[in-house]
Amino acid sequence: MKNETLRMCVACRQMKDKRTLTRVVKNKEGQFFVDPTGKMSGRGAYVCHVPECLTKLKKQKVLNKAFKCQVPDEIYQKLENECKEKK
Ligand SMILES: [Zn+2]
User: What pTM does this model have?
Assistant: First the structure.
């Protein structure tokens, strides 16, 4: 049995192992966080660490669509930094 939790990347819409994704969370107060632990409470969206996904994410503001509201640019920036670190 494989110990995998699959989540969908909001950019490429593929199911991937949770460990290869970075989570973005919106909490009850409507604040956004990049959540490397995957344990913060709130509504989450996942993005994988593929450069194409990051590019698409920023270009098309995919997170804004996923959360149906404005996501601060710094979240996109933090997400990019986070993904670079994981490589
Ligand atoms: Zn992806």
Answer: 0.89
